[in-house]
UniProtKB/TrEMBL annotation:
Name listed for the protein in its UniProt record: DUF4199 domain-containing protein
Taxonomic superkingdom: Bacteria
Alphabetical list of InterPro entries matching this protein: DUF4199 (IPR025250)
Annotated TM spans: 7-25, 31-50, 71-91, 146-164
Keyword terms of this UniProt record: Membrane, Transmembrane, Transmembrane helix
Species in which this protein is naturally found: Dokdonia pacifica
Length: 170
């Protein structure tokens, strides 16, 4: 079961990394897309459920809660880690200029969003100043973002494990 989950994670990580490479080469601004981020999260959730269902099938239709959660967590964690590491290397060592460009694009989008929601000018200025001073591609920021996304996906994984577990009848 763990081998199957590991394979799903490696395949997902490779696929997401390839997607990021393609987007980077075609139009790097797509990497800032909120919609793309949601689609990737949804894909990782589906991957977790598929991996759990596969583990259940491998185990003859039975899984403990721990086995179900493990089958969900492993591919999601690996599938998220590989492209996260790729983007860290890309934006810190290969092409920091694009990282700065994407940061400025993101700040402009945030400013537009805040203005559209009628945020006070002082609040907008403070938020923009904070964003300018933050290095969103530092190792700390990257690991924090990875951890928060993984925690969110793990909560969904707990729900998946609850729905997919099935004990053997004595």
């Amino acid at each position: 079961m763990k081998s199957s989950s590991l394979n799903y994670g490696l395949i997902a990580g490779a696929a997401l990394t390839l997607l990021y490479v393609i987007l980077y080469l075609v139009d790097a601004t797509l990497l800032n897309s909120f919609t793309l981020g949601l689609i990737i999260l949804l894909g990782l959730i589906i991957l977790g459920f598929v991996s759990t269902a596969k583990a259940k099938a491998i185990n003859g239709g039975y899984l403990t809660f721990k086995e179900a959660f493990t089958a969900y967590f492993i591919p999601v964690a690996i599938g998220l880690l590989i492209p996260t590491l790729f983007l860290y290397v890309l934006f810190n060592f290969v092409d920091p200029e694009t990282a700065e460009f994407l940061k400025q694009e993101g700040i402009a989008q945030a400013e537009d969003l805040m203005r559209n929601f009628g945020a006070p000018e002082s609040e907008i200025e403070k938020a923009l100043e904070d964003a300018q001073n933050q290095n969103q591609n530092s190792l700390g920021s990257t690991l924090t973002r990875y951890a928060f996304i993984l925690i969110f996906l793990s909560v969904i994984g707990l729900i998946a494990a609850l729905t997919m577990k099935k004990k053997k009848e004595d």
